[in-house]
Every structure is written in structure tokens, then in C-alpha cells.
């Protein structure tokens, strides 16, 4: 379940980085259209994979419910980060991953 939380968060981050406005506010490197297409494609692919993983592990009804329940706070968190501290998005993503790993092994 914790892996699904991070993968959904990461997928939405990638989709956001695939958009012009967010890419410019987060990245300091020059705009790269190929990289933005890769981000968008990987983000959609990760969302699809996590959707089916949750449906397989938890059943159809609970899987869909968990996926939406995880996606809503992830979107809210990313929106808040992009509005207030966009440059910190990569760092916050790494910290979020480390925290989830610590929680998993405690």
C-alpha cells in the first residue's frame, strides 16, 4: 500500500512536469520537449499501473476506492507545493520517499 501511495504521488508529479507552466517553475534546465513527453507518458503509465495493482490486491471496489482516496491528497499536496515552493518539489519527493521507506520498515 505504501508503494502505491508513492507511485501515485510520483505519477502526478511527472504529469505536472510534463506541462509547460510547471516544468518552467520547477526545472532550472532549458525546456526540453522530449523530456516533457517522457514525463507525461510515464506519469500516465504509472497511474494506470497503480490502479490495476490496487484493484488486483484489494479487489475491484476497494481498489478503486483506495486509488481515489490516495490520489486526492496527492493532488492537493502537489498543487500546494507548486503554488508556494515549486523549486522544492524534487527535494520534497525524495524526502517523501525516505519517510515512506522508514514507515514501512518500522
Features:
single chain; 106 residues
Explain this structure.
The chain has 106 residues and is an all-alpha fold. The protein has one domain (2-105). Helix content is 86%, strand content 0%. The protein has five helices and no strands. The longest helix is centred in the middle third of the chain and has 26 residues, at 33-58. The radius of gyration is 14 Å and the shape is globular. The mean pLDDT is 92.
Short structural summary:
By secondary structure, the chain is mainly alpha-helical.
SSE diagram, text form:
Layout: H1 2-17, H2 20-26, H3 33-58, H4 60-84, H5 89-105
Helix pairs in contact: 1-3, 1-4, 1-5, 3-4
Count of the separate structural domains: 1
Helix and strand run: HHHHH
Q: What gross morphology would you assign? A: globular
Distance between the termini: 15 Å
Class from secondary-structure proportions: mainly alpha
* Whole-angstrom Rg: 14 Å
Low-confidence stretches: none
Helicity range of the residues?
A: over 70%
Largest sheet: none
DSSP helix count?
Answer: 5
Q: Quote the beta fraction.
A: under 5%
Calculate the mean pLDDT score and round it. Answer: 92
